[in-house]
Amino acid sequence: RRILEENDVAAERVRRRLARNGIVAVNLISSPGSGKTALLEKTLDQLAGRLPCAVITGDQRTDNDARRLQGRGARVCQIETHDACHLDAHQIETSLDEVLADGARLLFIENVGNLVCPAAFDLGEHFKVALLSTTEGEDKPLKYPSLFSQSPIAVLTKTDLIPHLDWNIAACRENLRRIRPGVFIFELSSKTGAGMDAWLDYWIKMAGAPI
Amino acid sequence: RRILEENDVAAERVRRRLARNGIVAVNLISSPGSGKTALLEKTLDQLAGRLPCAVITGDQRTDNDARRLQGRGARVCQIETHDACHLDAHQIETSLDEVLADGARLLFIENVGNLVCPAAFDLGEHFKVALLSTTEGEDKPLKYPSLFSQSPIAVLTKTDLIPHLDWNIAACRENLRRIRPGVFIFELSSKTGAGMDAWLDYWIKMAGAPI
Ligand SMILES: Nc1nc2c(ncn2[C@@H]2O[C@H](COP(=O)(O)OP(=O)(O)OP(=O)(O)O)[C@@H](O)[C@H]2O)c(=O)[nH]1
Ligand SMILES: Nc1nc2c(ncn2[C@@H]2O[C@H](COP(=O)(O)OP(=O)(O)OP(=O)(O)O)[C@@H](O)[C@H]2O)c(=O)[nH]1
Ligand SMILES: [Mg+2]
Ligand SMILES: [Mg+2]
Ligand SMILES: [Zn+2]
Ligand SMILES: [Zn+2]
Question: Rounded to the nearest whole angstrom, what is the distance from the C-alpha of residue B134 to the centroid of ligand 2?
Answer without folding.
Answer: 11
